[in-house]
Amino acid sequence: MTSEKTDAIVIRQVDFSESSRVVTFFSRDFGKFAALAKGAKRLRGPFDAALDLLSCCRVVFIRKSAGTLNLLTEARLNSRFRPASGELLRVYGGYYVAELLDGLTEDFDVAPSLYDLALSTLNFLSDPKTHLPSILIQFEVQFLREIGLLPNLSACSVCGDDIHLDHKYAHWVTQGGLLCSRCRHEEYSGNSVQAGTIQTLREISECDTGVFVDGQISGSQLIECHRLAVSSIVQAMGRKPSTLRYLQIQ
Ligand SMILES: [Zn+2]
Q: Which range, 82-91, 111-120, 161-170, 189-198, is most confident?
């Protein structure tokens, strides 16, 4: 048993007993992990308000062997996720970040860049001057890139020919790639993708994590980028993220 320290975002909470909760964190140094927070439900519990959903905190926990719950011993609030009042869509945007981190990462799979992406996305969501759909699409694309599930945007998945932005392509969801018109047959169901969308996806995926791209994306490309990212997310999760129904991106 070792005591570990890290910065972490609270991505899920489940009641465990009358006074305790199991809290799932996404941390900078250990990836995702769950820990028992004894007394977390008490009014003046040992963790104060550090464990609100999407709060970022400095935590200390005792790491147990696989199959046994880790134990949270300290949690100190670094920052709270607090979008401007009345901005419910931004709150749901934060829940979406948490749902993807929870659903598409493995316990103790260390990914500091994913942590940085999540934290900067929460910060963008908290700033009322930012464009909500652009933030979410940037998060989706860079998230897929970080977990290795972003479709290959430079070559056809079947023939391997380079992608030319003056040709027509489709997104082949099950193979996680693009198909040129010569390779697009009935058996490969796929949605058409505009060249401008491929270009936009490339630009977002080549950006550093958390660098906010805004003002460049036209309405129809926003929708297509989002549709393509969601198809890849659904394919990986085996279901549609439940928070998506509150986030009508258009
Ligand atoms: Zn091809």
A: 111-120
> What single DSSP character describes residue 246?
G
DSSP state of 234: H
- Using the mean position of ligand 1's atoms as its centre, give its distance from the Cα of residue 216 in Å: 29
Give the pLDDT score at 167.
84
Give residue-wise pLDDT tens across range 146-193: 999 999 999 998 899 999 888 889 988 888 889 988 888 766 667 888
144 CA to middle of ligand 1, Å? 23
CA 88, chain centre distance (Å): 18
From ligand 1's centre to the CA of 185, what distance in Å?
10
pLDDT digits (tens, 9 = 90+) for 96-114: 999 999 999 999 999 999 9
Q: What does the pLDDT read at residue 214?
A: 65
Find the 197 Cα to ligand 1 centroid distance in Å.
18
Nearest one of 122, 235, 219, 222 to 171, comparing CA atoms: 235
Of 85, 82, 28, the C-alpha closest to 54 is 82
Crossing angle of helices 112-126 and 132-146, rounded to 10°: 180
How far is Cα 226 from Cα 187, in angstroms, rounded to an integer?
24
Tell whether pTM > 0.90.
yes
* Distance from residue 137's CA to the centre of ligand 1 (Å): 27
Domain 83-250, CATH number (from 1.20.1440.120, 3.10.350.10, 3.40.50.300, 3.10.450.50)? 1.20.1440.120
